[in-house]
Design goal:
mainly alpha; about 290 residues; about 65% helix
């Protein structure tokens, strides 16, 4: 079996085997208590097994539902990591697509899950492999697997295909929905990250003046040192969408030399930098760090 094919099996072994043999009730109860409120897969599975042995089937079912959610999160993270590995190692768009196909072979995903991945990695849309599926999504679709507005996902399909007007229209619908119901977070980092995404998407919608105002607000918001690289990348994306390449480079260059998602390979490959990638200033930045 190929090494990548062992991933999901390893997850199950890491989770631990169900309780076998005689386990004291006190230990079983301890495992149930530890599982309640946990998000760790192995803890949830041990707790569900313990609740089952105690005859508390309602609790066992609740813990198994939580374990299923945890497993899905782990699987989705694993799929993304497969793609990031291909990107970081310089395998380009074709390598990213091969990694995704391999991940899907091992971990099949629903149409909406696939669309979510392509929203994070729109490079996977090159060649149109998923276009028909994503563009068929509707909020009132008869098939629940395709029941989704998926505005950003469809906007990326159009943009990668070169249909910029259709893409801007969909980004416009997305930010209009955000205008009606702005997201509010208790965590300042989450709020700063969302504000950066909002500014970037305004720019993608062609609302340049609004994007600049939103970006100014974003850049004035508090953000922790740990989260700043990710948030700063959002700011750079906004400047790239606005065509202000010098400002984008000023924000990106400090990130290239640190352990962030911003690397020469990512800047050379990812769709988000396409508006400015071929400019002299951007290429000079890449040359300095090759």
């Amino acid at each position: 079996m190929r090494r990548s094919g062992l991933v999901l099996i390893a997850l199950l072994f890491a989770a631990g085997s169900p309780a076998a043999g005689q386990v004291p009730n006190e230990e079983l109860m301890r495992r149930v208590d530890a599982a309640e409120g946990s998000t760790e897969l192995h803890v949830l599975l041990r707790g569900a097994s313990a609740a089952r042995l105690l005859g508390d089937f309602d609790t066992a079912e609740e813990l198994m539902e939580a374990a299923t959610t945890s497993l899905e999160q782990v699987q989705n993270t694993w799929v993304s990591e497969m793609i990031y590995q291909a990107l970081a190692s310089g395998k380009g768009v074709n390598g990213m697509k091969r990694a995704f196909r391999e991940a899907l072979r091992i971990h099949p995903m629903s149409p909406q899950q696939i669309a979510s991945v392509t929203n994070n990695f729109p490079e996977l849309l090159q060649g149109g492999e998923y276009d028909e599926m994503i563009l068929s999504f509707r909020p009132n679709h008869a098939d629940s697997l395709y029941r989704c507005p998926c505005l950003a996902e469809k906007a990326w399909v159009h943009r990668v295909a070169g249909r910029l007007h259709e893409s801007r229209t969909l980004w416009g619908e997305l930010v209009a929905a955000w205008d009606r119901n702005p997201l509010q977070f208790n965590d300042p980092d989450a709020q700063a990250n969302w504000q950066g995404q909002y500014a970037r998407n305004l720019a993608r919608a062609g609302r340049s003046a609004d994007a600049r105002a939103a970006l100014a607000k974003a850049m004035s918001m508090p953000v922790s040192d740990d989260e700043r690289p990710g948030v700063q990348r959002r700011w750079a994306q906004t400047y790239a969408e606005l065509g202000e390449v010098e400002m984008a480079v000023e924000l990106l260059e400090p990130l290239i030399t640190s352990s962030t998602l911003v690397t020469v390979n990512s800047l050379s490959t990812r769709q988000t930098w396409e508006p400015v990638r071929n400019t002299l200033v951007f290429q000079e930045m890449l040359a300095r760090h090759r």
